[in-house]
Structures are given as C-alpha cells and as structure tokens.
Amino acid sequence: MTAVTTNYSFFEEQLSKVQIEVKNELGRDVENNELVIIDGLFGNVVDFEGIVDDARGLIDITTDRVISTTQIDTSDTFAVDDIVYFLSGKAAAAGKLIVTNDSGAVAVGICTKINNGTSVSLRPFAQNNGVVNAPKTIVHKITATAATAVPVGGLKEGDEIIDAFTICSGASTSGTLIVEDGAGNNITSAMTCAVVDALHRATTIDLTYSTLPATGAAIISVGGTAANTKGVVVITYIPA
Length: 240
Prior knowledge:
The protein is mainly β and about 240 residues long. It has no helices and 18 strands. The strands form 4 sheets. The protein has a 6-stranded antiparallel sheet with strand order 1-6-10-9-7-8, with no helix packed on it. A 4-stranded antiparallel sheet has the order 2-5-4-3, with no helix packed on it. Strand 9 and strand 10 form a beta hairpin.
C-alpha cells in the first residue's frame, strides 16, 4: 500500500460510531478519510492505510455526527439546510459532494455549514447497514417545471416503492406531484403541492406498478401551473 497522499481536510463530531466492513470494488484504491459509496453504503474510509482495490476494509456510516470535508465540487454553490448529494468517481477518481441530483448521484445528508467555499459540513442521512430488504429513502428536489416527467436517480429495476410524500417549496393552486414508473404509469396518488412548506403524503400506492421496471421512476406535475409546482419528494422503497 502506498503512503497516504490526501486527507481531504476531514473532520467530524460524533456521538456514536457505526463502522461496517465492505469490499472495495471501485476499481481503484481508496484513501483514509475519503468519502465513498461501497456496497450501497455512504461513509468515510476508516483504515489508516486506505483500502486497496478488491480488498475489504472499514467505512464509518454513523448518522449521529457532523462531518466536514474538502471532497466537494468547488464550482457548486452549497447552502445551509439544503440536501447534499454524493457522485461517485468510481474507478476514475474520488467521488465528490454536489448540490444537484445528477444522474447517478445519491442524497447523503443535509448541509450544516459552508467553510469559505473550500469545504462543507453535513449531517449524514440514516441508512441501511446490512439488514436484508430494509427500506431505504431517496430524496428528489423538483426545482423547475415537471410538466414532462423528471427521472429519479438512484433507483433501479426491481426496487419497490412503498411510500412517498412531498414538502412544497413552490405553490401552485391545484398543483400536484405524482411518482410514476419510467413507462408513465402512476405509482402514487397525486400529492398536493399548493401551499409552501406543507407536507402531503400519497394516499395510495398502485401495487401493479410499484416494483420498478428497467426504466426506473420519474416525477411529473399534474394540475395547476407546472412551472410553479416545486418541492422535495421523499420516496421510501425496498431495494431489489
């Protein structure tokens, strides 16, 4: 193993500790304190010498903590209380924290502090630590018109959606948001998005379409003015 070359200015405050052994199959070695997603889990590498490719090692997935890192896209504009996403660099390079739900990105926490634009602090979301078929949650922000269905990244064929709710950030009279499959079939009932900060949960889940096809899932705006119907959509699903 080569000597550590980067520590990403990693810092954390934590009340408890959950460390999980994973197998590094990214196609490259990962370094101590590097943020990664391995075996579907987000955390920082604990092993002091890192984890070589195709070897096993520990990552920390603790929720009760605030972490700070320079492992970010410095061209992004982070904001306190916004959702932070992690985009893996896979075999090419270390992944990075970003502010948009790009294809392949995963929502990993809430931004708690911005440090001179060179690093951010975040509180990680809770995540499944190995319980088979434990439900997971994915968060997707609708910040522009969803008159045409907007794909939801991070879901795959066979995932089963079991719940969804919206937190409205852009009100539109009679505006609603619906989670559908990639073929355009409604999975959830219409969730009202007409009052800013209001929360509305889907009242029904169509079990005919709730298990996703290869085309995944999407969110579409129905009713009202689509350009004004905006919000956070929180989806709970059982992984395939």
